Amino acid sequence: MRHSLPPTHPIRTLAAGLLPLLALVLFAGTAHALDPINKTWFGDLAVKGYDPVAYFNEGKPVEGSEAYEYEWKDATWRFANAENRAEFIDAPEKFAPQYGGYCAYAVSQGVTADIDPEAWKIVNGKLYLNVSQSIQRTWERSIKGYIRKADANWPRILKEG
Question: Which sequence spans correspond to the domains of the chain?
């Protein structure tokens, strides 16, 4: 007779916590020089083509359009409409995600990772993105602490690439 561990068993809980971290490490930044803006492999899209202004103005992720693009910091930023594009052009630092659009939790751990545009949060007027919803839940357990660690790590990560 086979027995499985109950969902709250410590071994299952530990495994559930380690799997996202293992994925984060495996898919962390590669050996080449780090681009200060996280971009897609094809098209050099920042935020995977999502409108960074929409997170603030609409309170949700919204895909941008090819009709409303803007080049900033060697990346192509897409917007849902002309108004959002104009707002970004006027103040890109206000709307661009922290840590160049890399996963905020990963940066707090001293590495970089891609993002899921659906895993986001605005904290103190700044946009933070994470690699997945499960990593986001981990990050949300200690947002201030993880931001403090990421803020300290980011200059080194950029420098070391």
Answer: 31-160
